[in-house]
Amino acid sequence: MRSAFKILVFVCAAVLSIPAFSQTLPVGTPVLEEAFRRGQLMGQYDSLLSLCIRPIFPDTAFPKGKTFQFKLLPVTLLTQYTTDHPYSINDGAMIPASGFQSIASAGVFAKIGPLTIQLRPEYVYAANKTFETFPAEHPVNVWSAWYEFNANIDLPEKFGDKAYSKLFWGQSSVRLNAGPVSLGISNENLWWGPGYHNSLLMTNSAPGFKHITLNTTKPVKTPIGSFEFQLVAGRLDSSGFYQAVPDTANPGYKSYYNHPKPNDWTYFNGLVITWQPKWVKGLFLGAARSFQVYHKAQGTRLSNYLPVISLLAKKNAGNDVVEEAQTNQLASLFMRWFWQKERAEIYFEFGRDDHAWNFRDFFLEPEHSSAWIAGFKKMIPFNHKPDQFIQVGLELTHMENSRVGMLYRSSGPWYLHSNVKVGYTQQGQLLGAGIGPGSNLQTLDISWVKGLSVIGFRLERYVHNNDFHYLAIHDIRAHWVDFMATLNGQYAYKNFLFFTQLSFINSYNYEHLYVPSEIIDSWWNPGVNVFNFQAQVGVTYRFN
Predict the structure, then answer these.
(1) Helix, strand, or coil here: 219?
(2) Picking from 186-190, 201-205, 416-420, 516-520, which range would have the lowest pLDDT averaged per residue?
(3) What is the C-alpha radius of gyration for the chain, rounded to an integer number of angstroms?
(4) What span, in angstroms and rounded, lies between the C-alpha atoms of 125 and 136?
(5) Per-residue pLDDT at 477 exceeds 70
(6) Which of 5, 19, 39 is nearest to 379 (CA)?
(7) Percent helix, strand and coil across the chain, each to the nearest 5
(8) Domain locations along the chain
(9) What is the pTM of this model?
(10) In whole angstroms, what is the distance from residue 432 CA to residue 149 CA?
(11) For the chain, what is the mean pLDDT?
């Protein structure tokens, strides 16, 4: 890390005389982030922006030409109440918790020549009330499989037994900007990929992490089209919480259940690139890759700090194969294609949790350790009014292991790793798709839209961790599946943005537990369901 900081200082000194600015629209910003993407479909924003590398850098943050500028950033407060068990996806620093929880953020932004400072901390409070975790009714063999699964990822069901309170750096950064390129130190959440609800390598389902970033703030134009990129080197921390061991657990397994993970942080290196071919308007092609390794196991060569530039095929790794085995690597390819005339877009992402031995291996079994996301969005004019639309969206996320991985090749679930035992996480939450390892999600959105005002509903089918189900449960009646109906609304009034979301969730076989009903004498009887309700209410105040 010292070498990386020396490089940072050198490059910063080289760009001090170049004017630029760089305020961000943070990942997950209520109302505004989604409105920005809608605006692009309607021709209001730069059609060369892929929106597959976020946060977004709006070029209207400040008037140009002034050396020093200062502004207050929006103040946001989001309050949430969950009645039964946690439902936590794409909520940043908030934790998986039952009961009351809130997050607040505010800050300032300053520009001094090419230097920009964005200080936007976040404060989280959660009552963290008790709820039923992995049920004691499961037999010993299921408990053993569950803890073997969790031994390779830092994904606690519950963050302790007390109320949770923590202040984060949040969406803060210090950057030096030169034209379309920015270099800096940041704690901001990142999003890589075209998905609305999920992305394979980087989302805001976890708190932001400390990182050095070299990235574009707007597309770089070339004779073959425009490019965007982000190169990141950072630090990921563990949660410090572990799965609880129930009193009913087999005493012979308790020492294994409590097996601690290494007391070390992990080094993260990631790269994402997008290309907009100038011959096909609205089409974006992209690739992302990430590496993760325990700090104490990291070497000192340049390749140890920048493994994302190493060769893709394992066959070509040579003497680095053993060293590579200590790292957790993910990679994906994606595309987004939108048409402003039709106000529509389609997108797709395909990823691998384990890169192929060579091209023959990839060609024969591309589904090995794979996951994918596909979706579309369409805005339909409503009631012959030019400023009102019906927005329809569909997104499918498939994280479940393939038949190849389950039956023939050693392929663990996405985000788990036998050597990097915290898995692909930051402070106990996933960096990638928030639905988690082995899970699938189908989402249908329908909304009425007028400017920043939105009234809509969403239907979702969320299959929890089928990889664990096929490993330990086996009963085809016992899949843990949530069916969720959500009502949401957004409204802008002067400097205020109001937003709310009401989710009604019916969990079939909660925590993979299937208990047949004794009333109905049928093999396909309904078992036991758990109802969950989550309400969110939030407000943002913008100073200008």
Answers:
(1) coil
(2) 516-520
(3) 23
(4) 29
(5) yes
(6) 39
(7) 15, 40, 45
(8) 2-541
(9) 0.90
(10) 18
(11) 87
111-139 tens-digit pLDDT: 999 999 999 999 999 999 999 888 888 88
Euclidean distance between CA atoms 359 and 413, whole angstroms:
22
- C-alpha distances (whole Å) from 534 to each of 65, 82, 141, 506 are 47, 4, 33, 11
Query: Which pLDDT score, from 0 to 100, does residue 449 have?
Result: 96
Nearest partner of 241 among 154, 144, 130, judged by Cα: 154
Measure the CA–CA gap between 530 and 459, rounded to whole angstroms.
18
356, 314 Cβ separation under 8 angstroms: yes
pLDDT greater than 90 at residue 510: yes
Q: What is the pLDDT of residue 518?
A: 72
Q: Is 159 exposed, middle or buried (0-12, 13-18, 19+ CB in 10 A)?
A: buried
Q: Closest Cα partner for 208 from 172, 154, 245? A: 172
CA angle 434, 438, 401 (to 5 degrees): 135
Which phi and psi (to 5°) does residue 132 adopt? -75, 120
Whether 192 and 272 have beta carbons less than 8 Å apart is answered as yes
| C-alpha to C-alpha distance for 187 and 211, rounded to whole angstroms | 6
d(CA 517, CA 185): 56
Tell me how far CA of residue 279 lies from CA of 41, 43, 223, 226, in angstroms.
19, 19, 11, 11
DSSP state letters, 58-119: -TTSS-TT-SEEEEEEEEEEEEEEESSS---SS-TT--S-BEEEEEEEEEEEEEETTEEEEE
Q: In DSSP terms, which residues pair with 184 in a beta bridge?
A: 175, 213
| Element counts in the chain: helices (H) and strands (E) | 9, 25
Strand partners, 426: 429
Tokens of 339: 């048409």
Q: How far is CA 147 from CA 257, 313, 406, in A?
A: 6, 32, 19
Confidence of residue 242 (pLDDT cuts 50, 70, 90): confident
Average pLDDT over residues 396-418: 79
pLDDT of residue 1: 42
Tracing tokens 């963290």 back to the chain, one arrives at 128
* CATH superfamily of this structure's domain 2-541: Capsule assembly protein Wzi (2.40.160.130)
Phi-psi region of 423 (alpha: psi -120 to 50; beta: other; left: phi over 0): left
Range with the poorest average pLDDT among 33-47, 142-156, 357-371 = 357-371
Other CB atoms within 10 Å distance of the CB of residue 438: 24
Angle at 124 between CA 118 and CA 128, to 5 degrees: 165
Phi and psi at 357, nearest 5°, equal -65, -45
Q: What is the pLDDT of residues 304-353, one digit of tens each?
A: 889 888 766 555 554 454 455 578 899 999 999 999 999 999 999 999 98
How many Å apart are CA 268 and CA 290, to the nearest integer?
7
440-469 pLDDT, tens digit per residue, is 999 999 999 999 999 999 999 999 999 999
- Number of residues that make up the chain: 544
